[in-house]
Each structure stands twice: as C-alpha cells, then as structure tokens.
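for the recovery benchmark. tokens below, seq after
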C-alpha cells in the first residue's frame, strides 16, 4: 500500500479554508482532515473533535511537553497545535491527510516532513477578505482589523508553498485542490516502486 499524502493547507483567516476543504471532502470522502488542538473558543456551529479539539491553555502546554504535538504556534492570542498520532496512523494506512494550519505551524511541518505538500489559499483581494471577515458577524471590528493586518504579513509567505489557490468560488477552488492532489500522486518521486515493477515485469 502506498503512503498517503500530507497536505499542509494554509491561508489567512477568512479565506474560506474550511469551506473549500468541506467541498473537497464531499467529493473525496476517503481523505482525512487532521483535527488540530486549540485554546480558542468555539465559533457558532463548531463541535469539539470535529473542527478542533478545544482545550485549556494548561492542557495544551501538557500536550506540548509530552511531545504529543507535531507542531505548535500562537496566533492572534490563541495556541494551535497538531496532534501527532492520528496523522502518522492515517498516512501509514494510505490515506491523504489535510492540515488546515496557520503559516508558522505550516513551516514547522514542512521542515519536519519535507515530503508534505504545501497549498496556500488566497482571497481574491484584501478588500474581499475584509468583507468576508465582517460578514461572519462573530468578531469585533478591532479583531477583524487585527486579522487583516495578520493577512498582509502572511500572504507573502505563499511563495514558500508548493501551490497557491485563489478562493474566488468555493467549487473552483475545490477543483483546483483536487487537481493538485492528482498531480502529486503521479510524481515520479512518489512512484519509484511502480517504475521498478514495470521494469521487472516479464
């Protein structure tokens, strides 16, 4: 069985990362979403263990000390981290795993696991991003402005990723993501066993 792909999926808050992934998973149910741990409060509609594991700062620090996290970072005043065990098992089982992760944590994963695939999702413009953030109506204007400031810092980091996808429409962004996964699975560097099998087949 071939090993699954680890896709590091990053982008500023409000670019619709979760929505794009939901559209992708609707057509590719065999893929798996890596659930991160976070100290931030749940948003309306979010469930513990589905979007995130919502934990206290004390619990988060304990997980970090016990080496239970592949990476961890602080973003907009909250801690985020990627539990190690579920990812390692899924990849071994041949499943593609998606990490919806901020840029700092994404860089840690890419260094630790260079075979991972980096995909950066972009808004059509900063103006559209601001409209999307305000459209949530879940955060104060000061928080929105902080997120836009963070976005201006993060967007140049897209150059450090393998692919960039603009989320103009969710359907098109999900299709582009599927094309990236397909292309990665056909890379010769991931198919040495296949090449050898063809050569050795009588």
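predicted aa per position
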């Amino acid at each position: 069985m071939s090993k699954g792909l680890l896709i590091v999926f990053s982008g500023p808050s409000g670019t619709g990362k979760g929505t794009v992934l939901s559209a992708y998973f609707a057509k590719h149910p065999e893929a798996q979403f890596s659930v991160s741990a976070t100290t931030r409060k749940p948003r309306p509609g979010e469930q513990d263990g589905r979007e995130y594991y919502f934990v206290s700062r004390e619990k988060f620090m304990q997980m970090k000390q016990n080496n239970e996290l592949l990476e961890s970072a602080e973003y907009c005043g909250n801690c985020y981290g990627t539990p190690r065990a579920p990812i390692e098992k899924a990849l071994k089982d041949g499943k593609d795993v998606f990490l919806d992760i901020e840029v700092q944590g994404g860089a840690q994963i890419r260094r630790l696991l260079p075979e991972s695939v980096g995909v950066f999702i972009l808004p059509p413009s900063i103006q559209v991003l601001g409209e999307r953030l305000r459209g949530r109506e879940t955060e104060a204007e000061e928080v929105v402005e902080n997120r836009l400031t963070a976005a201006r810092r993060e967007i140049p980091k897209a150059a450090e990723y393998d692919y960039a996808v603009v989320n103009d429409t969710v359907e098109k962004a999900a299709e582009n993501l599927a094309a990236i996964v397909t292309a990665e699975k056909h890379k010769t560097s991931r198919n040495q066993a296949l090449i050898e099998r063809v050569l050795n087949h009588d």
